[in-house]
Structure formats: structure tokens, C-alpha cells
Design a protein that fits this description.
The complex is a heterodimer of chains A (315) and B (277). With 315 residues, chain A is of the alpha/beta class. Chain A has one domain: NAD(P)-binding Rossmann-like Domain (Rossmann fold), CATH 3.40.50. Chain A contains eleven helices and 13 strands. A seven-stranded parallel β-sheet of chain A has the order 3-2-1-4-5-7-10, sandwiched between helices. In chain A, helix 1 packs across helix 7, helix 2 packs parallel to helix 4 and helix 4 runs parallel beside helix 5. Chain B is α/β, with parallel strands linked by helices. Chain B has a seven-stranded mixed β-sheet, with helices on both faces. In chain B, helix 2 packs antiparallel against helix 3 and helix 3 packs across helix 4. Classes of the chains: A alpha/beta (315), B alpha/beta (277). Chains A and B meet through strand 11 of A and helix 5, strand 4 and helix 6 of B.
Chain lengths: 315, 277
């Protein structure tokens, strides 16, 4: 019987992971960590799930969690999914959650008496995208380490590499799950924020294909990674591959193609005027060049294959 | 793909046999968009847009398409010329129109092509792929038909005086052929060399990442006639049983392919009655 700790549990993706774990045989208990003060009924859907409210950016809190409830539960598997929910969040506070909390959680897990596996929910956005790179992204694709990358990307790359550097050195078995874009609300999805406006600008003359993973498939993939023992990086593609124009259309939004150089000022203006968070600089590559995650490794080792297309229009 | 209006316009540009052909190509491939941005209706749009060029302008005549394997991974290796890549469009179109059973070719384009607005998207929809090694591997792993131009941009920009003399011949295609046990179909395209001689190349200009900016001698391609010759497939994997990464093996295998393409070129040149006929 397996016992799990899930951070970021109160997001739509976190809830999907809990549902997927509960559907698996052998799940004894789940400690679901979130920041919400109110006990979310969507998380405590089963007697095996216990909600813990915690601010992960405070290391003392993490220590109390790991050597308190986690040890009492004899938790064996950590699924780290906590990242700042704000699409445009930046600064030390965002980094503390996106990077430092992951680093601390991993370090504490390594010295923990019961934990044997660590699964990090990574992002496909960490990969560099360019026409000189493969269109189907496998786990060996270069990461976006460009010095001009915005903090949103830098944080995710840093957290991802922080976990990856422990492969083979950690007493834990470690999996990094780099998932395609998941159009979930309050989960840091740039594309979700992009599609939330009535009018979507897109670069004139470019209509790249984008792969999207449904919340259900991502939840299942993370549950499969948690239940497996294999180490390494696993790309998780979704069942929906569409051009940007079609994604906008299916989302019920109007689209206006504009010359590429105008995209940055337009979205900067929109951010200033409307308070939205979509950052064109973060998405420039994938709004010009199509690239899709290659899920061959996840299929072979984890037994994951995308099943559920993304339902349109999104919430 | 696209709006119903665009789909109707595309269909209107095709003759009835070509519509049937487009449907057959669509039936032979998975639904939806692939990871390279290709789509069955994109292939149809490509057939519609290239039809005037294929039928009226370049009046493409091809022989030996029966040499293209009916299934499984295969590599079409062709010469490349003409300042602008009309030869690649016509070869791609010829394969899409004439292979039996219908196969959608996956034509390798230089890495800067996807950066071109409109054009990059159009080519990707029709089946083009960016020329990275991994993309080519994926195509062959899926048992598709890969179209390569081993001369690369050096071939398309070679001086007029060097026409129909193959330039540096890269070895990547034979390495892939050996690794994936894919037959190589040597292919020659006669006609493109005279379509648009290069006046000069502006080497300091790199629009959208292109290696240079070509200045052609004519503002548009001349209506030369294209002759395509597909040779008998070469089972290199049966001829070479060593390490497919061995540089000597690769050089030797690539030289054999080059020799066959040159022979087909010479044959096509002997047979044609003039550059416009």
C-alpha cells in the first residue's frame, strides 16, 4: 500500500492527480498540501485524503511537515507540483516557491526515513524551441538557458535542473515529468491566460502547432510516475495537437494576426491596461515554431499514452 | 484545417482526379495534425497551389515512380538546383500525385524555411519538415517517405557553369538509410538548373536566417520543362553490414548514391530535346 504527499494539491491538476491515485490499486493515504485556508471539498473527496494547509516558502513549515505528518503517515512518495499560480508572478516570492521550495523539499526527502521516491512536475516550456531544433521534442532537447529568458522560464528550468542533478546521487528514485501545456486555471498556464482575453493577437504569417494535455491525462501521468520506480525525465504529451489559430477559434476567441514586432508592445500594453499576465517574451518561440513533446519514453516505461483530448471551449 | 470557404476554394482549384488523389492521400495518413505541423488538407492545398506550376509552367514529366517503395521507410535522394527551390516543390508534388499507393512525401527543407512567414507554415502543412537529424529519424521510424537533397543549399546556389554537375554530396541520408534499413531511391531532376540562374549572392545578408540572399538573373523562373527520373532503389543496408557511423562506409555509400544520381542526370540530359521541351 502506497502513501503519498502532494504539494500544489488544490489546483485543478492537483485534484486530478488525487483522483488518479485514488483510482489506482494500493493507495493507502494521501497528504494533500495547499495554501487555501478553507478545507477544499474537491481535494478531500475520500477518507484516505487529508488536507494540510502550508506555506511551502517557509522552510520551517516544510521541516514540520516532513518530520511531523509525513513521518506519521509513513509517506513513501512525494509529488511536487507547487509552483506560483500567477502567470506573470516574478520576484523573490515567486522564486521561493518555484525553485527554493522544491530544492528544500527534495533535500528533506533525501534525509527522510520513509520516503523512497520523488516526482517533480516539470514543464515542457523549459525546452528551447527553434526551427534549427527537432520539431518533436525528446528528453535530450536543449533547455531554454538563454540569458534573456524571463523569470517564469528561468525558475522552471532552475527547479527542473535542481531535481535532475540528483539523478544517481540521491538515495531516492527521482522522476521529472515534463508536461505539455495544460490549460488549467490558476496553474501558471501562459496559454490559458492568453486565451482568457476576448481578442488574441498572434504573429502574422505564423501558425505553429501546439500540443495540449488535458487535466485528466496529466493527472494520470503523474500518478503513473508516482507509482513507478523508474528514474529519469519523462515527456508527457497530450492528445490534442492543433495550430494556434484553431486553438483560439475553438476557445471562442477572436484572433487578430499582427506583425511579430508589434506583439511585444501590444501585450505589454495589455498587461499594463488590463492587468493580465500573458507575457509574449515567454512564448515567442512556440508562437512562431511548432514543436510537440515526444512521449515515447513515458509510453515505454510508465505505460502512459494520452487519451483525453482537451475539451473546448476551456473554462 | 482552415475555414470551410478555404476548403471549398482549394477543392475548386483541383480537377476531379486530383480531388480523389487528395482524398486517397488523406485516407492513408492519421487524422489531424502531426508533430511537424502537417495535415492532410495541407497536402491538398499544396496540390492545388502547385497545380499551375506543375501542369502549365514547368510541365513536369516524370518516369520511374514505380521504383518508389509502396510502403515502409524510404529515402528519395535528389539533386538540387535553381536558385529558388521550385525543384523541391515539383518533386514533392510529383510524389504526392503519382506514387501508388498514394504516399505523402516528407520533404526536408533548410532550417531557415520554417522561419519564413506564411511560406514556412504552408510548406509544413503540405508535408515539409525542418532539416534536423532527429526530424528525419522520426519520419523514418514512422515508415514514411523522406525526400532529401544531399547537395543542400550549396547545390541550389551553385554557379550556372557548374549546372548538372553534382556538388558536395552529404552523407547524412546514407547513414539514415543504413540505420533504418531504408532503401534509397536515386532521383534526378533535369530542368531546374536553367530556370533562374543566380546573378550573385549577397553573402552578408541572412534574411530569416538564410545562408545568403540570392539575386537571380530573372525576376521569375523561366518556363523550362522539368524531367524527373526515379532510379531503381538501392538497398544500401544489404551492401554494407558494418557500423553505419563508420566515416569510410558513409563516404563510400554516399558516393554510390551520387554516382547513380549523376548517371540519371546524364541520361535525362541526353534524352531531352531542349530546355523548354
Amino acid at each position: 500500500m502506497s502513501r503519498y504527499l502532494i504539494t500544489g494539491a488544490t489546483t485543478a491538476i492537483g485534484e486530478a492527480v488525487i483522483r488518479a491515485l485514488l483510482a489506482q490499486e494500493g493507495t493507502a493515504s494521501i497528504l494533500a498540501v495547499g495554501v487555501e485556508a478553507v478545507r477544499p471539498t474537491s481535494v478531500e473527496i475520500d477518507g484516505r485524503v487529508r488536507y494540510v494547509r502550508l506555506d511551502l516558502t517557509r522552510e520551517r513549515n516544510l521541516r514540520h511537515l516532513m518530520f511531523g505528518p509525513v513521518r506519521e503517515h509513513a509517506t513513501e512518495v512525494v509529488i511536487d507540483m507547487a509552483s506560483h499560480r500567477g502567470v506573470g508572478a516574478s520576484g523573490p516570492r515567486a522564486r521561493a516557491l518555484n525553485v527554493l521550495a522544491t530544492r528544500s523539499l527534495l533535500a528533506l526527502s533525501e534525509e527522510h526515513p520513509t520516503i523512497r521516491r520523488f516526482v517533480y512536475r516539470g514543464f515542457g516550456e523549459v525546452y528551447a524551441i527553434d526551427s534549427s531544433l527537432p520539431s518533436r521534442i525528446d528528453e535530450a532537447q536543449p533547455l531554454d538557458l538563454s540569458p534573456g529568458a524571463p523569470q517564469w522560464v528561468r525558475d522552471r528550468v532552475e527547479a527542473d535542473l535542481t531535481v535532475c542533478t540528483r539523478f544517481g546521487m540521491s538515495p531516492l528514485s527521482i522522476a521529472v515529468v515534463r508536461a505539455a501545456e495544460c490549460l488549467a486555471p490558476r496553474a501558471g498556464s501562459q496559454l490559458h491566460d492568453y486565451l482568457s482575453s476576448d481578442v488574441c493577437y498572434r504573429p502574422l504569417g505564423y501558425d505553429p502547432v501546439i500540443n495540449l494535455v488535458s487535466i485528466e491525462d496529466l493527472g494520470r501521468a503523474l500518478a503513473l510516475a508516482a507509482g513507478a520506480s523508474a528514474q529519469g525525465i519523462f515527456n508527457i504529451p497530450g492528445a490534442t495537437t492543433l495550430p494556434l489559430s484553431e486553438i483560439i477559434r475553438r476557445s471562442g476567441r477572436r484572433q487578430i494576426p499582427v506583425p511579430g514586432p508589434l506583439m511585444t508592445p501590444l501585450y505589454a500594453l495589455r498587461r499594463a491596461a488590463r492587468g493580465t499576465d500573458f507575457d509574449y517574451a515567454i512564448n515567442r518561440g512556440r508562437l512562431h515554431h511548432g514543436a510537440v513533446l515526444d512521449g515515447a519514453r513515458a509510453r515505454t516505461i510508465l505505460g502512459y499514452a494520452p487519451e483525453m483530448p482537451v475539451p473546448f471551449p476551456i473554462d | 484545417m482552415g475555414t470551410p470557404l478555404r476548403a471549398r476554394l482549394t477543392r475548386a482549384l483541383l480537377t476531379e482526379p486530383l480531388r480523389a488523389r487528395a482524398d486517397a492521400l488523406a485516407a492513408a495518413r492519421p487524422e489531424g495534425y502531426d508533430s511537424f505541423g502537417g495535415h492532410a488538407r495541407g497536402t491538398e492545398l499544396g496540390l492545388a497551389l502547385t497545380r499551375p506550376l506543375y501542369e502549365a509552367w514547368f510541365r513536369v514529366e516524370s518516369r520511374g515512380v514505380e521504383h518508389v517503395p509502396a510502403e515502409g521507410p524510404a529515402i528519395i535522394a535528389c539533386n538540387h538546383s535553381g536558385t529558388l527551390p521550385f525543384d523541391a516543390f515539383m518533386l514533392h508534388t510529383d510524389l504526392a500525385r503519382r506514387t501508388d499507393p498514394p504516399r505523402t512525401p516528407r520533404t526536408v527543407m533548410d532550417r531557415f524555411v520554417p522561419r519564413l512567414p506564411f511560406f514556412g507554415t504552408l510548406v509544413a502543412r503540405a508535408g515539409g519538415i525542418a532539416g534536423t537529424r532527429r526530424n528525419c529519424e522520426h519520419v523514418l521510424e514512422e515508415g514514411q517517405l523522406l525526400v532529401v537533397f544531399p547537395e543542400g543549399t550549396a547545390g541550389i546556389g551553385k554557379p550556372f557553369r557548374d549546372r548538372y554537375r553534382l556538388t558536395d554530396w552529404r552523407v547524412g541520408h546514407v547513414e539514415l538509410a543504413l540505420r533504418y534499413r531504408a532503401p534509397v531511391v536515386p532521383t534526378a531532376l533535369v530542368g531546374a538548373e536553367e530556370q533562374m540562374p543566380t546573378l550573385t549572392k549577397l553573402e552578408r545578408f541572412h534574411p530569416f536566417g538564410a545562408p545568403y540572399l540570392p539575386i537571380p538573373a530573372t525576376p521569375f523562373p523561366l518556363p523550362v520543362r522539368y524531367h524527373i527520373r526515379y532510379g531503381a532503389p538501392m538497398a544500401l543496408h544489404e551492401a554494407y553490414d558494418g557500423d553505419p557511423r563508420d566515416p569510410e562506409v558513409l563516404a563510400d555509400a554516399a558516393a554510390r548514391v551520387k554516382e547513380r544520381v549523376q548517371a540519371l542526370l546524364d541520361e535525362g540530359l541526353r534524352e531531352r530535346r531542349g530546355i523548354f521541351r
